[in-house]
Amino acid sequence: MKGPIGIFDSGYGGLTVLSAIRKQLPQYDYLYLGDNARTPYGTRSFETVYQYTLQAVRYLFSQGCPLVILACNTASAKALRSIQQLDLPHLAPDRRVLGVIRPTTEMIGNQTTSRQVGILGTSGTVLSDSYPVEIRKFFPDVQVFQQACPMWVPLVENNELENSGTEYFVGKSVNNLLQQSDHIDTILLACTHYPLLLNTIKKLTPEHISIVTQGEIVATSLVDYLERHPEMAAQCSKHGDVAFQTTDDKDKFNRASAIFLGYQTDATKVAL
Ligand code: DGL
């Protein structure tokens, strides 16, 4: 039986990844799941994020998804490896779970000339140290500086994208990052919510610094993955459909999704 590609996020952020993926792979079907009832994940412990993410992956498997993308840096940082190594072999050996960190780190070293990269993410992603560790594997000469931005996800979720209060918190985190080194020439937005703040971030960042978002990188990497794994591509259904599910109120999801997608979804509420 073929099934949709599962796209999981703690809330709405993964919608930015879904949009980018659908642009490059419109022929596939997608099932988006947002764990809005338990968002944010960024401030939660490793064990909690792992348990929540595992529940979501099991649920998406039960809905027939042969392949699940964790479109959330926090879940990718704190849960992906355990799920791939400990759970998948007995849970569903023929299915796959992929994250967003590896594809991003594989290319970030090609973007920097100064060989100094800044990472902006949730506290969970920053504390996990996943980005410095993974970037070092591909680009040992690249120095990585990190800054947690605990206020940014709530600002995005409340649609406070471009005003003076938002500029205060965005400017504070960007400055904290740039104070760590004068030579950072590339900043990665390592949280799938942050592309919504791109205009404000660009306004408050020196022009010579390039800001990298993940959606397209993850999408390109998925195209490549499906080409390299035709047996997985064959298990993914292709009608160009997308369905949205949330663990919280569906009307709230539908209203908020318009901020991320530019159109209203017709989500259903599910329990994990
Ligand atoms: N969008 C999620 C990420 O990419 C973070 C949101 C949250 O803290 O739950 O890390």
In short:
The chain is α/β, with parallel strands linked by helices and 272 residues long.
What can you see in these coordinates?
This protein has 272 residues and is α/β, with parallel strands linked by helices. Strand 9, helix 13 and strand 10 form a beta-alpha-beta unit. It is built from 13 helices and ten strands. The model has no long low-confidence stretch (mean pLDDT 95). The longest helix has 17 residues. The strands form two sheets. It has a six-stranded parallel beta sheet, sandwiched between helices. Bound molecules: D-glutamic acid (DGL).
Topology:
Layout: E1 5-9, H1 14-24, E2 30-34, H2 46-62, E3 67-70, H3 73-78, H4 80-91, E4 96-98, H5 101-108, E5 116-121, H6 123-128, H7 130-138, E6 143-148, H8 152-157, H9 164-178, E7 186-189, H10 198-203, E8 210-212, H11 215-228, H12 230-233, E9 242-246, H13 250-261, E10 268-269
Parallel strand pairs: 1-2, 1-3, 2-9, 3-4, 5-6, 5-7, 7-8, 9-10
The structure holds D-glutamic acid.
Give me some keywords for this one:
single chain; 272 residues; alpha/beta; six-stranded parallel beta sheet; four-stranded parallel beta sheet; 13 helices; 16% strand; binds D-glutamic acid
